[in-house]
Fold this protein.
Amino acid sequence: MIMTVSTRPFTGTFLVDQVHSSVEFAVRHMGVSLFRARFEEVTARLVAGEDGVRLEGSAPVESVSIRSPREFRDHVVFGADFFDAGNHPEITVTANDVALHADGTATVQAELTLRGVTRPVTASGTYHAPVVALDNRLRGALELTATVDRRDWGIDWQAPLPAGGDALGNEVQLTAHLELVEEA
């Protein structure tokens, strides 16, 4: 069976299904492995109309889930050296330029606000055109990745390793797997 996709696969407003979606980040740790974490609470809205496709989302910083002692997360990750959750409790993204290509690929030009700093980010990936799901509502998906330099948002903490190199990489990979449900 050959499936064709229109040039406008999404039409209307779609909200993220939190159960079937994830937003994660990964950063090189001690030069050898990736430290991964995810946001447990994410909101997102995709609006597609004649003017194009817009995507916006947010996550409370304190919804970061990592496998480490709670004291480390609360003191270090939420602290001033990293997310500074006390002063900047939310991370937001706004994309007015969402390109959904006929081959199923997607390119998103967005503005990411973290620690009170807003910077442009380009993400790329794929989308899955909406289908009628078991609940008789349209469901589609958008899967995106982007690589950013954490220092662009003022996350500058670093420690040298004894044999050279840095304890923490500067490049951070952001990954979003969003299952989007037609707004009721």
